[in-house]
Design a protein that fits this description.
Layout lengths: L9 H55 L13
């Protein structure tokens, strides 16, 4: 059992494995940075949606309030 697991010269295998590893790491880095960018975008969109929802409900509550409560004087009788 003196057989080598690979028949190619070691210097070729070493460069191949290093290149393969570096490509894998770079691809993983790209994916993680994309994921982070999407997380930031979702966070910002949720904050924006909550802000506009709050403005809508505040304006709606102000429009539905009785005239006296909106700061207007009641109409003369």
């Amino acid at each position: 059992m003196n057989a080598k697991p690979f028949k190619s010269p070691q210097h070729k295998l070493i460069s191949f494995f290093r290149r393969s590893r570096d490509k894998w790491k770079e691809r993983a880095r790209r994916y993680f940075s994309q994921i982070r960018a999407f997380e930031v975008r979702v966070r910002d969109l949720e904050a924006s949606r909550d802000h506009w929802r709050k403005r809508y409900f505040t304006a709606r509550a102000g429009a539905q309030a009785p005239a006296g409560r909106r700061g207007h004087s009641p109409p003369p009788v």
